[in-house]
Amino acid sequence: VTPLIRVVALAVLPVSLLISFAHLLGAERGPGDGFTAGIITSLGLTLEYLAFGYREARSRFAWVHFEVVLFGGLLLSLAASLLPLLAGAPLLAPQQADLEVPGLGSVKLSRGLMFDFGIYLTVVGGSMTAIDSLERAIE
Amino acid sequence: VPFGIQIAAATVALPFAGAMLIALLRAAGWRDAPHATIAVACSAATVGLAAVLWLAAPHPVTWRAEWIPAAGISFGLQVDGLSLLFAALVAGVGLLTFLYSAVYLPRTSEGRGREGSIAGYYAYLLLLTGAMLGLVFSADLIQLYVFWELLDLAAFLLIGLNWRSPRARASAVTVLLFTTLGGLALLVSVVLIGSAAGTFWIPEILERAELVRASPLFAPALLLVILGAASKAAQFPLHVWLPRAMAAPTPVNALEDSATVLAAGVFLLARLHPLFAGDPLWTLPMVAVGVASMLAGGILALTARDLKVILAYSTISQFGFVFVLLGYGGDAALAAALFFLFQHALLKSGLFFVVGAVGSTTGVWVLGRTRGLWRRLPLTFGIACVLALSLGGVPPLAGFWMKEAFFGKTLDSGAGALLVLAVVGSALTTAYLLRFLAGTFWSGSAEPGPLRVTPGKLLLAPGLLAGLTLLFGLRPGLATEPFAQPAAAAVLGRTATLDFELHLGPVLLLSLLALALGALGFAALRVRALPLTGLARVADLPGGAYRLAAGGVGSAGAWVLRLQNGILLRYTFITLLALLGLVGFAVLAAIIRGEAGFPPLPGVTAAGFDWRMALLLLLVCAGTLLTFLLREHLPMVLALGAVGYLMAGVFALALAPNLGLLQVHVETLVTVLLVLPLAAIPREVRERLFVRTRERLTVGRLALAGVAGVGAAWVSWLAIEHLPPDPVAPWYSENAPELVGATDIVAAVLIHFRALDTLGEIIVFATAAAGVFALSHLIRKESR
């Protein structure tokens, strides 16, 4: 592992997060979706692990518990599925709301986006839980 | 909402609320302290509410609310004489049980769960009473079924309370098996009755009784109701679970065997009595099951040695009497059955309380190890005598009237053989109760050791019950007029009278004959003149069958373990073999029917030939072959990764950019996930493993792999050739922007059109990740 790779790894993580969010927000208009976004974020994190070694890299974001992310994402998706019921619509029906954000203008929020974000968190949480578990088992 | 309904709802809700409170306090760290008090308070309040309901609330009254209108299921309460009789029993015996437990549990090791806490005991016992109260006030069959299963659950938890003991665990599972079997039968019959009547609302079903009886679903519904009730009331041959349920703490047995679990079966039959009784199909199975239980229970009670098991067999036998009475089907027979159940509940709970008192003071739970105990515990002995002799049918105690009513109705039925069996069953009762009394207090092979404590307060509950049985014996009208007759009248819609007057006649003669025969049988038993062992073996046939079946399941489990031996190669082999068998069968069947053949090879035209695609596919083949030929794990994984990237290219060329994108990412992640553990294995170990794997590469395995590969290709080909004529994809593309506001068709399908599938998939994904997490924890625990 050369210093160059480390620099690249450091740079790649924020970029991968950005690409993930682009995928998430653009899911309904172009290629990519929550699942792809989740894998991209996981890859960015994994590169960090490979470049700096598991311990050092993990200690930088020790406050993140990927099990919590995993089930938080699952719960978010479930909540998004149930949300339309509150409005009297069937389960998982498409729903949209326009939110006025001062300075930004109108932001379109949809049930689909929330659902997709849940998928994203589930995928990140799941794959990183698996890698964490493997690393810990190997140690 | 009418006043009576409000009170009934509170009566049902209170025990559940108490159980919840105990659970919350336990979670907050209270192991022992307030739980008994809470349970007793809840139970006392339940008794108060039941009394208010009985005395002050006008009834009958029903209340109905929509629950699942689409399926015609409602939620409702029904307060009438029948529900009040059972509610009075549950509340009354329940209160005695809680009071008894508060004294009994601290003296024994019973009833303690995790960390020695008694919270579970009281919470589950409250759950049991709550479920039974909910069941007796139910006015909808589906709702009744829900409480019925809740009762099973509470019984299961109570019996398995001592979870460290393998016996308790096995008993709990047995109980669950039998009662759930009955529950399933009940569910099916509920659905049958519901579809025949067009409603699950019990009063409406009973109004439309003619309609239901004319339906072809009536006969199976009737038989399944009997099956369900018989499993709950522990009737032969489904009685096997009850003796095993004695693994529960003794006060639990007192409540279960008298007023809750077993009584639920009788309640169901009484509730549906107008629908079934009098049908020719009804009498025979009910009387047959009842007589068989009466005799088998009696014989097994005569041979058992464990005090609680004797009482369990006695319960089976006594509920047999109730089944016979219900089977007769007349108005007075129903009233007699309810009177019988009522008296039995008081006597049987009292006997269990006595056994608990004897067991906890002497430490002896079997017959014949406490010679001369009556001299040391005279009061206990006196109470036990009153209760046991009453159940044995000795006048002037209430049990005498139970037998009197039974013989009276049997005489009315006019079946001579039945009369003989009734006398035998009754005589067996007298005999085993005499044996129980003598073996516990009088004779035996050993004197009891020094008593640990005196029974003291433990005698309050059984003493009260003994007093009641004397009272009801002298004045049976006190039990029939407020309890049994209104209950029967509520079901029948007309009055049913039970008159207990002593006059010299065949009924009294039969009663005395049964008593004399019982005493004679007990005397014969003392000199070992009864061929009991053979009879007991016959009576225990269902138990033997159950043991055989349980053993069979055990050996099947061992066989599966031999299959699942931890060698991944074998798992793959078996999975592929099964897959080939299933798919191959379907494909062969299709070929034989002429629906499928070898699909035609695609005609390759110069215009349609894409050399980039051809090149990629060739590289995919080469990469796959390379994976097989490589001699080390790590390069193999990398070659596999390369194949994955090439496939991404294929997807991209095939106009599936989404899939290609995902393929690249997933392939990378999977490669990392494969390399990580492989890299952790030392090189020598890896090489050794590799050689061993290669050695297992036999001709048979190669052939299987080849056939599986070619078969998979062929089936994919077939599938492409047989695309449905009306594909759904164009519809999605056309309607996605308008319906869900997404222009990307993949996202539209994933998060909108087929979002439920996606939800299912991420649940699977999360479960798999949790599995990896759990496995790694296990590995770390073992290596430590």
Explained architecture:
The complex is a heterodimer of chains A (139) and B (784). Chain A has helices at 3-25, 34-52, 54-60, 66-86, 111-138, and strands at residues 96-101, 105-110. With 139 residues, chain A is mainly alpha-helical. A two-stranded antiparallel ribbon of chain A has the order 1-2. In chain A, α2 packs parallel to α5 and α4 (66-86) packs antiparallel against α5. The mean pLDDT of chain A is 84. With 784 residues, chain B is mostly helical. In chain B, a hairpin with a 4-residue loop joins β1 (61-68) and β2. The model of chain B has no long low-confidence stretch (mean pLDDT 87). Chains A and B meet through α2, α4 and α5 of A and α29, α33 and α34 of B.
Q: Secondary structure elements and their pairing?
A:
The complex is a heterodimer of chains A (139) and B (784).
Chain A: H1 3-25, H2 34-52, H3 54-60, H4 66-86, E1 96-101, E2 105-110, H5 111-138
Antiparallel strand pairs in A: 1-2
Helix pairs in contact in A: 1-2, 2-3, 2-5, 4-5
Chain B: H1 3-27, H2 35-55, E1 61-68, E2 73-79, H3 81-104, H4 119-137, H5 141-159, H6 166-197, H7 202-207, H8 209-214, H9 218-232, H10 241-244, H11 250-258, H12 261-271, H13 273-276, H14 280-303, H15 307-328, H16 331-362, H17 373-376, H18 378-392, H19 398-413, H20 416-442, H21 460-474, H22 477-492, H23 506-526, H24 532-539, H25 541-563, H26 568-592, H27 611-629, H28 633-653, H29 657-680, H30 683-695, H31 699-721, H32 729-740, H33 745-753, H34 755-783
Antiparallel strand pairs in B: 1-2
Helix pairs in contact in B: 1-2, 1-4, 2-3, 2-4, 3-4, 3-11, 3-16, 3-22, 4-5, 5-6, 6-9, 9-12, 9-14, 11-16, 12-15, 14-15, 14-20, 14-24, 15-16, 15-20, 16-18, 16-19, 16-21, 16-22, 18-19, 18-20, 18-21, 19-20, 19-21, 19-23, 20-23, 26-31, 27-28, 28-29, 32-33, 33-34
